[in-house]
Design brief:
The chain is built from ten helices and 13 strands. By secondary structure, it is of the alpha/beta class. It has a seven-stranded parallel sheet, sandwiched between helices. Nicotinamide-adenine-dinucleotide binds next to helix 1 and strand 5. Its cofactor is NAD(+). Residues 5-303 form the NAD(P)-binding domain.
C-alpha cells in the first residue's frame, strides 16, 4: 500500500483523483485550504479509514512520510486566480518549493499539475510540448501562467540538481462533475445558465476555441504518468484534441438541456487565448497508448446530470 499526498484534493480534479487512488488501495492524504475546493466534494470519502483530510495551505511547508505527491493546489478558474493574484503566484511557486522539498526529503515521486496556459496565446497549432509559448508576463492572466511556468522550472531544477523523481503534465481545459457552480469557467457557467434558462454569456464573438477534456480521461492520464518509467519526466500534454469554438459549446449545451436561454455577447477579457488544441502524440507514445475516451456531448450530458441534481437540491 502506498501513501499518497494530493494537494488541492478537495477541488474539482483532486476529488476525482482521491476517489480513484482509494479505489486502487492507496492510503490518501488530501490537503486543501478550501479556497475554491469544498468538503462536499470529498464528503463521501470521509468514512474510509485510508482517507485523511488536512486543512493546510501549500505556501507553508508540510511534513509527512509519503511515497507519491500529486501537486494540484492552485485556483484554476480565471475569476478565482485573478481575485488575489499575489496569492495565486505564491501558491504555485512556494507550493512547488515546499512540495519539492518534501519529495526530496522523503524520496517521494512528485507530479505537477501544470497547464496548457504555459503556451499562452499560442502561435503554433496544435501545441506540442517543445513549443515555449507566447505568454504576457504582466497581464491579468500572468499570475497563473507565469506561476505555473516557474513551477515547471523548479520541478526540472530539483530533478537535475537534487535528483528528485518528478513528472510534469500540462492539462488542457477539463470539465465534469464536482466543478463548483460558481467556478466561473465556461463549461460550468454555460450549463448552470442553461439549466436556469438564464442568458448564456459568451465573451467576445465566440469564435475562440478550446479543446475540452472529460475529467475521467484526465485522471487516467495522470495516474499513468505517475506510474510511467523513471526517466520520463515530461512535460506531457494531457487533453482532448477535439477542438470547438465557444459558440459551438454554447449551442451544444442549449440543445442537450432543452434550454430556453438566449446567447448574449459580453466583452472578451484581456489576453484571452484565441485557440488551444493539444498535440497528444507524446502522451500516446509514453503512456501506453493513452487517449481520451469520452467525447464532448457524452461528457456534457454527465456534467449536466450532475448540475441538474445539485441545483434541485439547493
Ligand atoms: P479547483 O479550483 O477546483 O481546485 C484547486 C484546489 O486547490 C481547490 O480545492 C483549492 O481550495 C485548493 N487550493 C488553492 N490554493 C491552495 C493553497 N494555497 N493551499 C492549499 N490548497 C489550495 O481547480 P481544478 O480544476 O481542480 O484544478 C486542479 C489543478 O489542475 C490546478 O493546479 C490547476 O491549475 C490544474 N489545471 C486544471 C485545469 C482544468 O481545466 N480544470 C487545466 C489546467 C490545469
Ligand atoms: N468564456 C465565455 N463565457 C463564460 C466563461 C468563459 O465565453 O461565461 C470564454 C472565455 O473567454 C474563454 C473560454 O470561454 O475564451 C474558456 O474560458 P475558461 O475560463 O473556461 O478557461 P480558459 O480561458 O482558462 O481556457
Amino acid at each position: 500500500m502506498k501513501r499518497v499526498l494530493v494537494t488541492g484534493g478537495a477541488g474539482f480534479i483532486g476529488s476525482h483523483l482521491c476517489e480513484r487512488l482509494l479505489k486502487e488501495g492507496n492510503d490518501v492524504i488530501c490537503l486543501d485550504n478550501y479556497f475554491t475546493g469544498s468538503k462536499k466534494n470529498i464528503a463521501h470519502l470521509l468514512d474510509n479509514p485510508y482517507f485523511e483530510l488536512v486543512r493546510h495551505d501549500v505556501t507553508s511547508p508540510y511534513f509527512a512520510e509519503v511515497d507519491e505527491i500529486y501537486n494540484l493546489a492552485c485556483p484554476a478558474s480565471p475569476v478565482h486566480y485573478q481575485y488575489n493574484p499575489i496569492k495565486t503566484i505564491k501558491t504555485s511557486v512556494m507550493g512547488a518549493i515546499n512540495m519539492l522539498g518534501l519529495a526530496k526529503r522523503v524520496k517521494a515521486r512528485i507530479l505537477q499539475a501544470s497547464t496548457s496556459e504555459v503556451y499562452g496565446d499560442p502561435e503554433i497549432h496544435p501545441q506540442t510540448e517543445d513549443y515555449w509559448g507566447n505568454v504576457n508576463p504582466i497581464g491579468i492572466r500572468s499570475c497563473y501562467d507565469e506561476g505555473k511556468r516557474c513551477a515547471e522550472t523548479l520541478f526540472m531544477d530539483y530533478h537535475n540538481q537534487n535528483n528528485v523523481d518528478i513528472k510534469i503534465i500540462r492539462i488542457f481545459n477539463t470539465y465534469g462533475p464536482n466543478m463548483n457552480p460558481d467556478d466561473g469557467r465556461v463549461v460550468s457557467n454555460f450549463i448552470v445558465q442553461a439549466l436556469q434558462n438564464e442568458d448564456i454569456t459568451i465573451f467576445g464573438d465566440g469564435s475562440q476555441t478550446r479543446s475540452f477534456q472529460y475529467v475521467d480521461d484526465l485522471v487516467e492520464g495522470m495516474s499513468r504518468m505517475m506510474q510511467t518509467r523513471h526517466n520520463f519526466t515530461g512535460p506531457v500534454n494531457i487533453g482532448n484534441p477535439n477542438e470547438f469554438t465557444i459558440l459551438e459549446l454554447a449551442q451544444n449545451v442549449i440543445e442537450l438541456t432543452n434550454s430556453k436561454s438566449k446567447i448574449i455577447n459580453l466583452p472578451l477579457p484581456q489576453d484571452d487565448p484565441t485557440q488551444r488544441q493539444p498535440d497528444i502524440s507524446l502522451a500516446k507514445k509514453e503512456l501506453d497508448n493513452w487517449e481520451p475516451k469520452i467525447q464532448l456531448r457524452e461528457g456534457l450530458q454527465k456534467t449536466i446530470t450532475y448540475f441538474d441534481t445539485l441545483l434541485k437540491d439547493q
